[in-house]
Amino acid sequence: EKHQFETEVNQMMHLIINSVYKTKEIFLRELISNASDAINKIRFMALTQPEVMAAKPELEIRIVADAKHRRLIIRDTGVGMTKDELRRNLGTIAKSGTSDFIQKLQNNTADISQIGQFGVGFYSAFLVADRVTVASKNPTEDMQYVWQSTSVNQFQIMEDPRGNTLGRGSEITLFLKPEAAEYLQESRLRELVKKHSEFTQFPIYLWSAKSETHDEPDEAAIAEAKHKLAELDAKKAEKAAAKQKDADDDAREELEEQLKATKSVTTTSNAWDLVNQNKPIWMHNPRDLTEDQYQEFYKTFYKSSANYTHVAHFKGEGQVEFRSMLFLPDKPPAGFLTREPDANTASPIKLFVKRVFITDELLNFLPRWLTFMRGLIDSDDLPLNVSRETLQQSSALRTIKRRIISKALDMFGEVADRGPKEADQLMTHFGTALKLGALEDQASRAKLIKIIRFTSSTLKANATSPEDVTTTTLDGYVSRMRVGQKQIFYLTGVTPEEVERSPFVEVIVERGYEVLYMTDPIDDYLVNAYTEHDGYKLQHVGKDGLEFGDETDEEKKSLKQHETEYKPLAEYLSSLLSAHIGSVKISTRLTKAPLALVANAYGLTGSMERIMQAQALAGQADGMAEMYKHMKKILEINPYHPIIRKMLERAKALPPKEEGSPKKGSADRALDQIAKVLFHAAAIRSGFGIEKPAVFASQLERVVRTALD
């Protein structure tokens, strides 16, 4: 019987047959997926009609490449199709949205891999074949039927002249186009099954050539040895008759050894080879899986030689149902925070639909800070074929994304709750990423802040061995705060040595307060965004606004006295250094250093200034950065330091400066030089850079020369 394709099928087949799409390989995924669906249907039917399994109890998919006749055959033991179903399923389209898809195909704006979304994945066979034959046997009919088409206009259905060769199921034969010859290669077929259908729940067998090598007697060498031995025997008989000695014993031994000669022979035979041996372990109950099984799967699936450190295996239920496995690797991939994702970047999350691999091109599925994770998603509620553009707009996938992020946060929390050492190790490897998450992802910030740890001056001072944990969370810090303490003290810098030796922490540590040391470049950004924790302000100890909370009346009185006493020096320094500082204050944070340079409450710290400078050199600076850069600092002086006392005496002795005088500096040129050298030294000790190092070096040399004279 000959039939005409309906108009939409006709249009689509014409476009597919002449397709120039590069993703032609998806045809095998589509046909295997259809075969899997057919097997699922017969399995469901067998629940109430067990007799349908009698003809073919096996549930499987088999693939044969016939290179001689350029045929590719995909056979399944599924439900098969009746004659009427062959006509309806393979000749008409009853799914909405197909017309729009065909229109996009015509305009070259459609992703060909979407084809299965419209229930017409079968037609992807025409991407690689110019003729397709489908033999099918349904258990409700006695006859086996054949559907075939070599034209974009029509197809025909007939009784299979071979009879009932299938028992049950379908057999699709693709007569491949010359340019599709690669799909006759066993290695290519195996690669595609592994890539797209590795976790199909039914076994997929590939008709494979097997080579075996074995040893067998080397008949030629043995025949040669026998011939030569016969010659030696004849010579021996002649010599014996002539009463001569036989001198051929060594040659005889070699020939007798040659009688045992063997050769390696390689024979080739064909056999069915199971391709999808890795079963989808995410479909199992986590309680039924061992750690070794998880590790083996992780190494195989991600081609990793290292173990993962933690795994979350869970099922998402509700509006969208899915199964997922998330792995925390032993360490993050190199440069994962600096690489910009593109279409060629594989996502750390692989998407499956009904155990069929769909894509690992889920760009921006995970936020940047979480891209060190590895995992997979498998959902029955997503269409089998979705384009990258469709994925970005999928509400179902957005729901899954929120669940995945939430589960990852739970995983980090569980790791941190195991103890300080585990939490510290998590921060060592993934701390920068977690801080970036707290900075960029406001929805995740509260949970991440509970996990993030910083080095503690108190814990570091109390450590008795290198194994002792010296980091703490903000919650841990708050739990140890002194009575009356108003702020959480922290200091940012480049290295641990720099922050520990900073003049800013001197008096704070001496007074028994805890300081958090922050040496990760992202820390400055984080504390600018997260300024308060549990009702306490985060206070940079190198910024204006520092309050201890335990100041006595006597200390407050002493501060006022010092402000009055040191007013001449403060006015002198304010005038001399007016290009750099906005004010001079009596310091309550210094004990050993004479001076310190402090940023105002809204200014940049030294470490942040260096970051901004690096960005400017890279061409990434903006107007705000320039504004912050030119904000004047506060110079704090230590009233108890002998250098400051001496400078006060010299400042008091200065004659009054004439009003309106354009002359820079004071009458005491030596004092001016000392003040400038001390200012630049204070800037360096406070973590700031100096604009003109050569000028500073010259000033220092002049001071030394004066002292030597």
Distance between the termini: 117 Å
Low-confidence stretches: 94-98, 114-118
Q: What percent of the residues sit in helical stretches (DSSP H or I)?
A: 40-55%
Radius of gyration over C-alpha positions, nearest whole angstrom: 41 Å
Name the quaternary structure.
Answer: single chain
CATH architecture call of the largest domain: 2-Layer Sandwich
Strand order of the largest sheet: 1-6-5-4-7-3-2-8-9
| Shape, per Cα inertia axes | elongated
Largest sheet: 9 strands, mixed
CATH class category of the largest domain: Alpha Beta
Structure summary, number of beta strands? 23
CATH overall fold name of the largest domain: Heat Shock Protein 90
Number of domains: 3
In percent, how much strand structure appears in the residues? Answer: 15-25%
The CATH superfamily title of the largest domain: Histidine kinase-like ATPase, C-terminal domain
Number of helices: 24
- Classify the secondary structure makeup into a structural class: alpha+beta
User: Mean pLDDT, as a whole number?
Assistant: 84
Description of the molecule:
- Keywords: ATP-binding, Chaperone, Coiled coil, Nucleotide-binding.
- One of its GO terms (molecular function) is ATP binding.
- Belongs to the heat shock protein 90 family.
- It holds the Pfam family HATPase_c_3.
- There is one protein chain.
- By secondary structure, this protein is an alpha+beta fold.
- It folds into three domains: 207 residues, 2-Layer Sandwich (Heat Shock Protein 90); 140 residues, Ribosomal Protein S5, domain 2, CATH 3.30.230; 150 residues, Up-down Bundle (Four Helix Bundle (Hemerythrin (Met), subunit A)), CATH 1.20.120.
- It contains 24 helices and 23 strands.
- Strands 1-6-5-4-7-3-2-8-9 form a nine-stranded mixed beta sheet. Strands 16-15-18-17-20-19 form a six-stranded mixed beta sheet.
- Helix 6 runs antiparallel to helix 7 and helix 10 runs parallel beside helix 12.
